[in-house]
TrEMBL record:
Species whose genome carries this gene: Celeribacter ethanolicus
UniProt-listed Pfam families: GDE_N_bis (PF14742), MGH1-like_GH (PF22422)
Transmembrane segments: none
Protein name: Amylo-alpha-1,6-glucosidase
Domain of life from the UniProt record: Bacteria
Length: 734
């Protein structure tokens, strides 16, 4: 591993200036590939339906660990031919991927058939555990005669940084090292420009007949009905294991399944009268726990596979809020981890300012060398108020005063950031503008370069005050007031409540637009309003900053045909400048966006409209592979008997998309918790038309749990307590 094989370089024609935004190219459609994904901890994998990794320009497939691709090609053939796919599926809990394959007709050089098709069955069972991919390849002869079978596995590791895989062109790369080959294992290695060595160790059990740096060949003699099992282990920076892969496979599989069961056992469960909805919910919850990574501070949902499998502040804060009723331990883990990584110094290259909450963390070579600014990056304007909001919501849900006391210094620092760095010009609104040209140009959740614009399509110039961010700040101040009051800081509580009230009045005066019938998207650096109908206004309902008398008008704009396409509310209404239903942020439909809007509708008592959004999002899921909601889909109008139009490079699974049905269900049921009184409250619950009954089990409050069934009865919903453990009361209001 010490001798350099080659110093990789690029042609001069490839040395182009980096793009202003860290875009995701659409060279390879994830929807067309419909890949199979696995994740555990800081490792994830993207396979095709056969279980292969196909290399090539724009391919997102591979085995990735800490933002580096450790396996870029992995290709199984039988008799020199690719096997035919029978089926490919993930377990309901995402623990394993199983691919069933069979042989095509295998002929000799003269065209004579040696083995007819469908005689040899191959089952690949694969999972990830602690930085290693484990595979069992079971090969069975279903023919009535014996067969000699040749299997070849071709493999390669390019050690590409995740941003290279996404399309970023690099002027230089590190050094590929000579591979090490033994009778049953191969080690492929690379030393990056960050001077960190990275290695992929492949072990084969039993040893193949032939093993080279790029392929393993097995020659099997299979009697009629005989099965042979081959075990392959692919470790990322793995220490040499003493036990053979065949033994480690079963031990690690047991440990992986136990860990999944242990983490998901904290959560409440949902069962309904609609089996397709049950499948959707099972997949959503399974995806959330697959995306969960255990940090020193607790469980943390990584944002999504393949492009965002890392710590994101905004995404995790919203995901934890969507999951809060189901599993509040996730919110605790997110809050404590983000508190531990809160900025304490000013750094313009990473948009860090004291008190600001992390946007993104990366561990790859390009982050370590500064080629991208995301090693610890703070360029999001909304993570900080969302952090304070979640802290307040977590305490309301759990009553956990100990965690509140731990978070209080970080809440204070976040409030100080809002007052100082957040309000760039002292006008009482929080704005953003990147401190260096390395950072993101737009720093709200719609962070595309063209996501904030004026009525004529002209891009807004900073500092930009997004409408929804002011709502987040309003809700954060109210949450801070409640936290301060609980901790005995009455003066701070009164100050924050007063500032929230003042912001509500000032915001309405500056952002309301009578002609639009809703709030403008943003104010630009000259305080000119971006007069655009957008979904952002729905977040304002979620935060409660909208005066009661305006709510119905805002909802009319959101649910009108130009905004609500039948699947959900579009990010930008049809007819607005830059509207494009195939764009990332200017006309598409995002499940998490709609979940927050649905929660906002319910907050103002419009649960029927929230149920319409819920029905649209659920119906979209019924057309999607594995019932798995993607990051987004296109905003074309819904047509009878047709599913939604997919967005080509949407991440799937994506944490806040997986959490969307949970928040929408909570919104429709009016579900909230009074931790102090130990009450589970259903406030004017309704059930959407596709649900006749919902059973929630293992709803936890300190001191007890409860199972509740909610059933439609005429125009009302009635609740039955099925089981109660401890002094927990269930309250239903009508």
């Amino acid at each position: 591993m010490t001798e350099a094989l080659q110093q990789t370089g690029l042609r001069a024609s490839q040395l182009v200036a980096p793009p202003a935004q860290f875009f995701i190219p659409a060279a390879a459609s994830l929807q067309e590939r419909r890949p199979r994904t696995l994740k555990h901890g800081d490792t994830f994998a993207v396979f095709d339906h056969n279980g292969d990794v196909l290399s090539g320009p724009g391919s997102p497939e591979g085995l990735f660990h800490r933002d580096t691709r450790y396996l870029s090609h992995y290709y199984l053939t039988i008799g020199g031919e690719r096997p035919m796919l029978l089926s490919s599926t993930l377990r309901d809990d995402n623990a394993t991927l199983t691919c069933d394959l069979t042989n095509p007709d295998l002929n000799d050089e003269t065209g004579r058939c040696l083995i007819a098709h469908d005689r040899i069955h191959m089952r690949r069972t694969r999972f990830l555990w602690q930085g290693t991919c484990y595979e069992r390849l079971a090969v069975r002869n279903f023919d009535e005669v014996a067969h000699e079978v040749t299997l070849e596995i071709a493999f390669e590791a390019d050690f590409a940084d995740i941003f290279e895989v996404r399309g970023r062109v690099r002027a230089r790369r590190g050094t590929s090292l000579l591979p090490e080959v033994d009778g049953s294992h191969v080690i492929l290695s690379y030393r990056g420009l960050d001077h960190n060595p990275r290695s992929t160790a492949l072990r084969f059990d039993p040893a193949p007949a032939q093993l080279e740096p790029g392929k393993a060949v097995y020659r099997l003699s299979l009697a009629p009905g005989e099965t042979r099992s081959l075990f392959i282990e692919i470790g990322c920076d793995a220490n040499g294991a003493e036990d053979p892969p065949s033994r480690l496979f079963f031990r690690s599989l047991r440990d992986a399944r136990r860990a999944l069961r242990r983490s998901s056992s904290r959560a409440a469960t949902v069962q309904s009268s609609n089996e397709i909805f049950n499948e959707t919910m099972r997949r959503s919850v399974s995806d959330l726990y697959m995306l969960m990574t255990d940090t020193e501070e607790g469980p943390y949902p990584y944002a999504g596979v393949p492009w965002f499998s890392t710590v994101f502040g905004r995404d995790a804060l919203i995901t934890a809020r969507e999951m809060l009723w189901l599993d509040p331990a996730v919110a605790r883990g997110v809050l404590l981890h983000l508190a531990a990584n809160q900025a304490t110094e000013f750094d313009p290259d990473t948009d860090a300012e004291p008190g600001k909450i992390l946007h993104e963390a990366r561990y790859g070579e390009m982050a370590e060398t500064g080629e991208v600014p995301f090693r610890r990056y703070y360029g999001s304007v909304d993570s900080t108020p969302l952090f304070v909001m979640l802290a307040g919501a977590y305490f309301e849900r759990t009553g956990n005063r100990e965690v509140l006391e731990t978070l209080w210094p970080h809440v204070r620092a976040a409030l100080d950031w809002i007052e100082t760095y957040g309000d760039r010009d002292g006008d009482g609104f929080v704005e953003y503008e990147r401190r260096s040209d390395k950072g993101l140009a737009n720093q709200g959740w719609k962070d595309s370069h063209d996501a904030v614009f004026h009525a004529d399509g002209t891009l807004a110039k900073g500092p930009i005050a997004l409408c929804e961010v002011q709502g987040y700040v309003y809700a954060a101040r109210l949450a801070a007031a409640e936290i301060a009051r609980e901790l005995g800081h009455d003066g701070i509580a009164q100050e924050q409540a007063r500032k929230a009230s003042e912001l509500k009045s000032r915001f309405d005066a500056a952002f309301w637009d009578d002609e639009l019938g809703t709030y403008v998207l943003a104010l630009d650096g000259d305080k000119r309003p971006c007069r655009v109908r957008s979904s952002n206004a729905g977040h304002l309902l979620w935060t409660g900053i909208v005066p009661e008398e305006r709510a119905e008008t805002v909802i009319h704009a959101l649910m009108g045909p130009s905004s609500f396409c039948g699947w959900g509310v579009r990010t930008i209404a049809a007819g607005q400048a830059r509207y494009n239903p195939m764009s990332y942020h200017n006309g598409s439909v995002w499940p998490h966006d709609n979940a927050l809007i649905g929660a906002g509708l319910a907050r103002y008592g419009f649960r029927e409209q929230a149920a319409r959004i819920f029905e649209g999002i659920f119906s979209a899921a019924t057309y999607i592979d594995l019932r798995r909601l993607p990051e987004l889909f296109c905003g074309f109008p819904r047509r009878e008997t047709q599913g939604p139009t997919f967005y080509p490079v949407a991440c799937t699974p994506q944490a806040w998309a997986a959490g969307a049905p949970l928040l929408l269900l909570q919104a429709c049921l009016g579900l909230r918790f009074d931790a102090e009184a130990r009450q589970v409250i259903f406030e004017q619950p309704i059930l959407p038309e596709f649900l006749g009954e919902v059973v929630l089990r293992n709803l936890r409050l300190d001191g007890g749990t409860v199972d509740v069934a909610l059933r439609r009865s005429g125009t009302h919903v009635v609740a039955d307590v099925l089981r109660r453990d401890g002094p927990v009361r269930v309250i239903v209001t009508t």
